[in-house]
Design a protein that fits this description.
The complex is a heterodimer of chains A (about 70) and B (about 270). With about 70 residues, chain A is mainly beta. Helices cover about 10% and strands about 35% of the residues of chain A. Chain A has a single domain, classed as Ubiquitin-like (UB roll), CATH 3.10.20.30. Chain A is built from 1 helix and 5 strands; from the N terminus they run ββαβββ. In chain A, strands 2-1-5-3-4 form a 5-stranded mixed sheet, with no helix packed on it. Chain B has about 270 residues and is α/β, with parallel strands linked by helices. In chain B, helix 4 links the parallel strand 1 and strand 2. In chain B, helix 4 crosses helix 10. The longest helix of chain B is centred in the last third of the chain and has 20 residues. The chains are: A mainly beta (about 70), B alpha/beta (about 270). Chains A and B meet through strand 5 of A and strand 5, strand 6, helix 10 and strand 8 of B.
Amino acid sequence: MAKITLNDEAQEVTLPLSLTELIKANSATPEMVSAQLNGEFVAREQYDAIAIREGDEVDILYFMGGGQSS
Amino acid sequence: MMDFTPEQIERYSRHILLQDVGVEGQEKISNGKVLVIGAGGLGAPVLLYLAAAGVGVIGVIDGDTVDLSNLQRQVIHFTPDVGKPKVISAKEKIRQINPDVKVIAHHDLFTSENAFELIRDYDFIVDGTDTFPVKFLINDACVIAGKPFSHGGILRFDGQTMTHLPQTACYRCVFHSPPPPNAVPACSQAGVLGAIAGMLGTIQAAEVLKFLTGTGELLADRLLSFNAKTMNFRTVKLHKNRQCPVCGEHPVITELKEAEQTACDLKQR
């Protein structure tokens, strides 16, 4: 098990774990989010290749439209 | 130096009382020019508060007419306004709230063709739109033209907002490109709690007033998001993305392209 911080909350995960797997495990779709790993944006094409490590801080940011239309 | 009338001094007294605003700050608000793109869920509270605050020139652009289903959250429009262009309905309310404000209404869509001309004369732009291609278009136009703007988005019980200033992270730094059509539902499909629009829109309005008066710390290089079910608010630190296609080290977006019409909106017109 490894301790990481996801969206400001402590979480325990089992390694090895890719960023893609972490996103999916949190009920999100990789194509529909943006992710920061330790404060740096990660290009979506690299989600598969990124291996989560102990102590990582991950932010998953969601697309949000809304506001105008009927 | 602006000479406020006794009525204006009274109208704006609660601003003037604020140490961080004062007469000077109110002058800056009264000299401010703000363009609000979209007179819907977000635009409604933004427009109401900017009007009440006495922003000198408020531009508003929206191609839509008021629909009965808008009234649950678009609080600048009233029941008798159904069928009326949103910008006309909004202009009428702004006039009634505050005759000091000059309103420039555009019953039109914000497109790559008119974007630069529309934003040119304004100090600050507010994104109150619903579709991702237009959100990206607003971002690109403001980044290229060096205009500060506030991004806002709401969905179901959630809201998010960030403020872009020249040299701070832009919307594309966070979200590289629009999601695939229909991947992310619009409010018209997924629904939204009406008051969420007010929560987010008033945050955007506060950012505008902070920007105009130079007060406090803007949501620049920060993305604020909240969930109204838990009432948890979260601020994520951002910084400019070197690979950003519009403001990064090697920008590939140097001119505006037509926003592809999104398939997000289920509603057939």
